[in-house]
Specification:
heterotrimer; A alpha+beta; B alpha/beta; C alpha+beta; B: nine-stranded mixed beta sheet; 6 helices; 21% helix; globular; C: alpha+beta; seven-stranded mixed beta sheet
Chain lengths: 91, 248, 781
């Protein structure tokens, strides 16, 4: 029976790729009194629901979606989090 | 002022129309296909500038696969599909892009301008990617670019080292690629244009590159905006004229 | 809370008052309807009769503006003014404010301001070809003002660039008075083949009303949410679910523009109207009212973004990027084709009816009411109506369409000149300060945020798209070619200028307004263009303050006088009241947008850039009155004295001379004297031209800082100089040779000797008030 899963894909710039947004935030923090923060990186979070037989097949589909559409592998990495959906309805 | 010395040609901003350049032949206009996505916005400007070179341009809607016998393809600037997700990320799946890739692999000349360059990298015809500008701002201004190689479909009428005034107009024009890719681009002489004063943080001042077979070129500056002295520069004419020559 | 048809008071306040309607207004509604309105009807009246939609406080004054001229095709009252510029081409223009939304959420406020004004233009069948804006912020020293400024600029850039309409002109002013209430005024110009002109009116009983574009959400419902039948949640969460901030989607707008223009080209559309303030209520009532017809609207057919939306929410939602098209039923197939091509969603939501009634239905004809959440309690049941034969659904509201659109009360609010106004002119001892050191004071002016280089702003806007921009932003006026796909060919050019000056208007709103119109016309003249039409955006404080109403009335009279004198029709306008914060009204800030036409644009007109080795002339009268100048206000905090009165006969002759000089190519540089006065004007010319000047014959240094009207600086070659002198004599325009251009010093004999580089570095100085450094280092000597 197909299950529903909640998916969170975090897309961020690959390590070593300059991140001017992250750098700007990091530069502005000391002025606000936050001296202890470093390594700020800005990315985006994409949420959706997916139907799949099980978590691993869900993950394999999501990986394909990431590779083909959600991220540009030249500059971006993705992190995928999959959890079982709690309620039935998609929003 | 830009130096417009090109190989054996008069340094005039008004390049001879190509149709007349073919000795004795009746006027046979080269048909250039200009791909239009929802969100493209420079397509009519490219049509207009090609028109001043006596070429015929036809608009090709993204959902069609037929390139309608176009001899060259331009992917114009704009915000295809709103640039949502990433510039070019959605456009690359359009029907027409399969045909454009096929056309390019067969050696057909393809020029991607600005958003078009972004689409070409997304679809894999050109390496690298275009990131947000270093200053995190949209930039619309005249830029000075230097022709780094005359060996490409968009620079064959230009001389290496020539300096051109061509406007830029982008938020995501900061060319980025791996170290290996950069080395390969440099060694294979595939960097077509470099900025004189790097406006956006592009690696190695890159403003435009070509593929291995030198028929596909992507560039952030807008040559179609520099085809009329009334608009401040006519240095873009030779870029478009190069494309037309490559299409012959 | 139980929904109730009657307008019963609740424990605290009657509902109509919570919606912003006065007791008299509520009484008038009951008289119109012959019964008490229900909640939905009350909501519809409350938004349509708001100051924002009805102009109830300003209408009585706006009538005094001259709106007629032979070339005016559409005057005020439609979505945009339209003029005939010849060659079979018409030009549509409009200006609007988006001040309050920009104060709350600068990026989206400005972005949706751009979106709204674009829709006003393509509603007329015109393709938008450019945007221009007038922006007023608090001091850039304040982090909040900087945040607002950055956000507004990014919003204009983000939306305008992506929608594909160049932003080609504008002004940016910084003044403490706008720190709590910034002003964001956006002007748009569109072009169309004359015969394609369409009006926002419905006609033809049985024709369909089709809603195009974005789905309808709870955007912009804000103040009317007291009507919610059940509070969504309490406290903050409720505010989140009914956001008052609208979010713009330029990609949707781009597709909507292309789809609408294609619908118009294909002759599918009978009438079309954008959805702006008051959303569907405004669009349906205005189209019906203008066409003298009625309309049935089935809200169950409206595509909604959120579930459980109530009828009043659907009717007043200000969701962006929506249009209402009126089409013949036989055109539906063609409309579907075009909308599908451009991926624009659409839904037939109603039809044109005989009579004058706007009826809001839930479910109609063969459909059962699909709006389960809104039972008959919300409207009146079918038996309440006499004409239920046409529908089987519920009738939620039934009102005369014109009563919403046209019958709003008109107020002649109390007006009172402030006590200081009469007194100021006679203030004894009110003597302007003396100029101490010309060079130092010039440097202070060049560093003034309102005078400083604004390229960090306009370089974020695509100002070149469409290959029309012959003279771009940063000068007096902007010059565009008159060209667009589908337009008849023309050699003409357009010139555009947007101007405001709250200093002048705070001293004397009537004279200040005249001077602003004159200044705007001067900017066009410097481009070689005769002014053809004017639009205004009147930004004022609280209209319940008699002083504010006096300011408005005086301003209107000033604009009217200037326009009459210069034969310039007012083709549209916008009034923004309640610009106040912390108990203070903003200074009166009328913003004037003017459109001029250049008969033959065959070469690039001279710009303000000074050319080496030229004679520099001042055209116009001598003026050393510094009252109201930037120098007096910002450097010396001197706000006394009187502005120099303008002589329109003189103004016209100076402008005609300038236009002739530009058109006959007698001059190489031209710049009118405005913000900062003559010395700032000369310095800007030197910086732009990268060449110095040497001036003599300045007896009273105050002359260098006066902002007196009708004065223009021109630069001409040796040969041209003879023509300039001859033509000025022929046209009886006072002329004075100030000196020559050349070298790298800014020199005024006996008063100043400054290096061009130091002036330029100060002027370009702090590029951006932003956190990051400019993308490239500035070239310094």
């Amino acid at each position: 029976m197909a299950m529903k899963y909640e998916v969170l894909v975090e897309v961020s710039l690959r390590e070593g790729i300059a991140d001017p947004q992250g750098a700007t935030i990091e530069r502005s923090l000391p002025a606000l009194g936050f001296e202890s923060i470093e390594s700020v990186r800005v990315g985006k979070a994409i949420r959706f629901r997916i139907q799949a037989d099980d978590a691993s097949s869900a993950k394999s589909t999501v990986q394909q979606v990431c590779e083909r559409l959600l991220a540009n592998p030249v500059i971006e990495d993705t992190a995928i989090t999959i959890t079982e959906a709690t309620t039935g309805d998609a929003k | 002022m830009a130096s417009l010395l090109s190989k054996g040609r008069v340094a005039s901003p008004f390049v001879k129309p190509l149709a007349q350049g073919r000795e004795g032949s009746p006027k046979l206009q080269i048909v250039v296909g200009i791909v239009v996505f929802p969100g493209s916005n420079c397509e009519h400007d490219v049509v207009e500038s090609l028109g001043s070179l006596d070429a015929k341009a036809q608009l090709l809607w993204h959902s069609q696969a037929d390139l309608q016998n176009s001899r060259a393809i331009v992917l114009p600037g704009g915000f295809a599909h709103g640039d949502y997700l990433r510039p070019g990320a959605i456009a690359k799946f359009s029907n027409i892009m399969n045909s454009v890739v096929e056309f390019a692999r067969a050696g057909g000349p393809v020029l991607g301008i600005c958003n078009g360059f972004q689409i070409l990298t997304e679809v894999g015809l050109l390496p690298g990617a275009l990131q947000k500008n270093r200053g995190l701002r949209f930039i619309c201004e005249m830029s000075q670019v230097v022709v780094s190689t005359a060996n490409s479909s968009a620079s064959r009428q230009l001389a290496q080292g020539a300096q051109l005034s061509i406007p830029i107009n982008h938020f995501e024009g900061n060319f980025t690629c791996s170290h290996d890719t950069l080395e390969q681009l440099q060694q294979e002489d595939r960097i077509v244009f470099r900025y004189l004063n790097n406006p956006n943080g592009s690696v190695d001042d890159i403003a435009g590159i070509t593929n291995e077979t030198r028929n596909v070129v992507g560039m952030m500056p807008h040559p179609e905006r520099a085809c009329d002295p009334m608009l401040g520069s006519s240095d873009g004419i030779q870029v478009l004229a190069s494309l037309l020559e490559a299409a012959q | 809370m139980t929904p109730d048809n009657s307008n019963e008071p609740n424990e605290t306040e009657p509902l109509h008052r919570l919606l912003g309607l006065t007791d008299d207004e509520a009484g008038k509604i009951a008289t119109i309807l012959g019964r008490e309105p229900n909640h939905l009807e009350l909501a519809m009246y409350s938004v349509m009769w708001s100051e924002h939609c009805s102009y109830k406080s300003s209408r009585v004054h706006l009538k005094r503006l001259p709106t007629q001229a032979p070339h005016v095709l559409v005057g005020p009252g439609e979505n945009a003014g339209v003029i005939d510029v010849g060659d079979g081409i018409a030009v549509a223009l409009r200006i609007e404010s988006h001040n309050h939304p920009s104060a709350i959420e600068p990026y989206q406020g400005a972005a949706t301001g751009v979106g709204g004004i674009l829709r006003d233009i393509f509603t007329m069948g015109a393709r938008p070809i450019c945007l221009a804006d007038s922006l007023w912020f608090g001091s850039p020293e304040s982090p909040r003002s900087r945040w607002i400024c950055e956000g507004v600029v990014s919003g204009i850039s983000g939306y305008g660039n992506a929608v594909g309409v160049p932003t080609i002109a504008g002004e940016v002013n910084f003044d403490e008075a706008y720190s709590g209430n910034p002003l964001v005024n956006v002007m748009c110009i569109g072009v169309l083949p004359k015969e394609r002109l369409v009006l926002g009116q419905a006609s033809g009983s049985g024709n369909l009303a089709v809603l195009l574009g974005q789905s309808t959400g709870r955007d912009g419902i804000g103040g009317v949410s007291v009507l919610a039948s059940a509070p969504l949640e309490d406290g903050d969460e409720s505010a989140q679910k009914r956001p008052s901030v609208q979010v713009g989607d330029p990609f949707e707008e781009k597709r909507l523009i292309e789809a609408c223009l294609e619908l118009l080209d294909a002759g599918v559309v009978v009438g079309i109207q954008d959805l702006g303030g008051a959303g569907l209520t405004c669009a349906t009532s205005e189209t019906a009212s203008r066409g003298n017809v009625g309309m049935d609207v089935d809200i169950s057919k409206v595509i909604v973004r959120q579930s459980g939306m109530e009828p009043f929410e659907i009717m007043i939602s200000e969701s962006q990027e929506r249009m209402l098209a009126i089409i013949a039923p036989s055109s539906l197939g063609r409309l579907e084709e075009i909308c599908n091509k451009w991926e624009v969603a659409f839904s037939v939501i109603g039809k044109v009816t005989l009579g004058d009634k706007l009826r809001i239905l839930s479910g109609s004809d063969n459909d059962s009411p699909s709006f389960q959440a809104n039972g008959p309690d919300h409207g009146y049941s079918s038996d309440h109506t006499t004409s239920s034969d046409q529908t089987s659904g519920f009738i939620l509201a039934e009102v005369p369409a014109s009563s919403l659109a046209q019958d709003a009360p008109i107020y002649m609010r109390e007006m009172q000149a402030p006590v200081w106004f009469q007194a100021r002119h006679f203030e004894l001892g009110s003597r302007p300060p003396d100029v101490v050191d010309v060079g130092t004071e010039l440097i202070s002016l060049l560093a003034n945020p309102s005078i400083r280089d604004k390229s960090w702003i306009y370089n974020q806007y695509d100002h070149q798209l469409f290959l029309n921009t012959v003279v771009g932003p940063g000068g007096d006026g902007t010059v565009l070619r008159l060209k667009a796909p589908g337009l008849p060919k023309s050699d003409k050019g357009l010139a555009v200028s947007v101007d405001g000056n709250s200093r002048w208007c705070s001293m004397n709103p009537r004279l200040g307004a005249k001077l602003i119109v004159a200044e705007s016309v001067a900017n066009l003249a410097c481009c070689g263009a005769f002014p053809k039409a004017l639009v205004n955006c009147l930004n004022f404080g609280n209209p319940e303050h008699p002083e504010v109403m006096w300011q408005l009335s005086e301003t209107v009279d000033g604009i009217a006088e200037a326009c009459t004198a210069m034969h310039l029709p007012v083709v549209g306008g916008n009034v923004s009241f309640y610009n106040e914060s912390g108990g203070y009204d903003i200074p009166p800030t009328p913003v004037i947008g003017t459109l001029g036409v250049i008969e033959k644009l065959l070469y690039v007109p001279p710009t303000m850039a000074l050319v080496d080795n030229c004679h520099i002339f001042l055209l116009g009268d001598y003026d050393s009155n510094v009252s109201g100048s930037r120098w007096a206000f910002d450097l010396h905090e001197y706000k006394g004295g009187s502005l120099t009165e303008i002589n329109f006969a003189r103004h016209s002759s100076v402008m005609e001379l300038v236009i002739s000089l530009v058109r006959q190519r007698m001059i190489l540089s031209v710049h009118d004297i405005s913000d900062g006065g003559m010395l700032v004007a000369l310095t800007e010319m030197a910086i732009k031209g990268e060449v110095g000047f040497s001036i003599s014959g300045i007896n009273d240094p105050a002359e260098l800082f006066s902002e007196g009207p009708s004065r223009v600086i021109v630069g001409a070659s040796e040969q041209g100089a003879q023509s300039v002198i001859r033509m000025a004599n022929d046209m009886a325009v006072p002329l004075r040779e100030l000196g020559v251009s050349g070298g790298d010093r800014l020199a005024i004999r006996g008063l100043m000797n400054l290096s061009l580089a130091s002036a330029r570095d100060t002027w370009t100085g702090q590029q951006a008030p932003a956190q990051q450094a400019p993308a490239q280092p500035l070239a310094t000597s």
